[in-house]
Backbone:
């Protein structure tokens, strides 16, 4: 798709160039796991409900951050996946 096909003043998103070091790690079979994710992603990955995640956050058993852009009214809640793994491993 060309920039002109979208209309005047519309920019197309461009894929960033891959890092050579990252390509080498991936070629060796490395698996990249995100450190933080949204509630929706966390429910899919760990199988816990949204309610359970918010309860664990309120109790301080898992860590999360509220990402809010400057001037925005609403933000996004990001869950620290490592803390969820630690919490779940405490039951093993």
Residues:
């Amino acid at each position: 798709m060309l920039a002109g096909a979208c209309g005047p003043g519309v920019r197309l998103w461009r894929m960033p160039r891959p890092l050579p070091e990252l390509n080498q790690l991936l070629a060796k079979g490395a698996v990249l796991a995100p450190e933080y994710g949204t509630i929706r992603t966390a429910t899919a990955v760990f199988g816990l409900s949204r309610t359970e995640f918010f309860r664990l956050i309120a109790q301080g058993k898992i860590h999360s951050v509220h990402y809010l852009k400057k001037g925005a009214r609403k933000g996004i809640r990001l869950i620290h996946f490592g803390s969820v793994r630690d919490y779940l491993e405490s039951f093993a």
